[in-house]
Amino acid sequence: MIHQPKNMRVLFVCLGNICRSPLAEALFQKKIMDAGLSDKVKCDSCGVSDYHIGELPDDRTLANAKMNGVEIKHRARQLNKRDFKSFDYILAMDKSNLSEINKFMQMHHIAHDNVHLLRSFDQTEGQEVPDPYYGGDEGFQKVFDILSDAVDSFLVFLKEEKLAEADAR
Ligand code: 4NP
User: Atom 12 (ligand 1): residue with closest C-alpha?
Assistant: First the structure.
């Protein structure tokens, strides 16, 4: 039987799903494409809150992403039970998001092996992606730079640890 390695599916999670996680998704998507891995790695994003369901990303996020050559096409949605079956990695932007995800899992008796802070895959040993929502424009560029590096590090991890493993099978 031909073994078909399964896709790796990655979900980026923040509070509102209008600033950090849709940008993480768009950046990761671009890097997956550039690496020729579009058929092997899939991604999406969502928020732990219901504050902005159905909305496009924050205007400041869209403007900053455009300035950096990244297009975001995403409508905000909230984390749901199916996500824990649909995604192999669930990556939170900050500790508060992570704690909300864990609470959701406890409440719904859900187990999942790979719920982490996004930045636990880079050199920072799990620093947070700061929330830019209440700050100025410079915060959005800072978040862009942090996310660009963080998703790079996560893709290196996936390529080295997981995709290589799946290919070897
Ligand atoms: P995000 O940023 O979690 O990166 O999408 C925020 C968006 C909205 C709010 C807070 C943070 N809010 O309070 O509405």
Answer: 16
State the CB neighbour count (10 A cutoff) for residue 101. Answer: 23
Strands 41-47 and 8-14: parallel
Evaluate: CB of 15 within 6 angstroms of ligand 1: yes
- Lookup: tokens for 169: 């099978």
Q: Is 46 designated active site?
A: no
Q: How far is the C-alpha of 140 from the C-alpha of 76, rounded, in Å?
A: 18
Q: Domains in the chain, ordered, with CATH?
A: 8-164 (3.40.50.2300)
Residues paired with residue 43 on neighbouring β-strands, in sequence order: 10
Active site residue 131: yes
Q: What is the pLDDT of residues 17-43, one digit of tens each?
A: 999 999 999 999 999 999 999 999 999
Q: Which of 48, 51, 97 to mutate to test the pocket of ligand 1 (most atoms within 8 A of CB)?
A: 51
Is 13 in a helix, a strand, or coil? strand
| The two three-digit tokens of residue 32, written as one number | 């997956």
> Distance of CA 112 to CAs 28, 31, 33, 105, Å?
22, 26, 27, 8
Q: How far is the CA of 15 from the centre of ligand 1 (A)?
A: 5
pTM listed for this prediction:
0.95
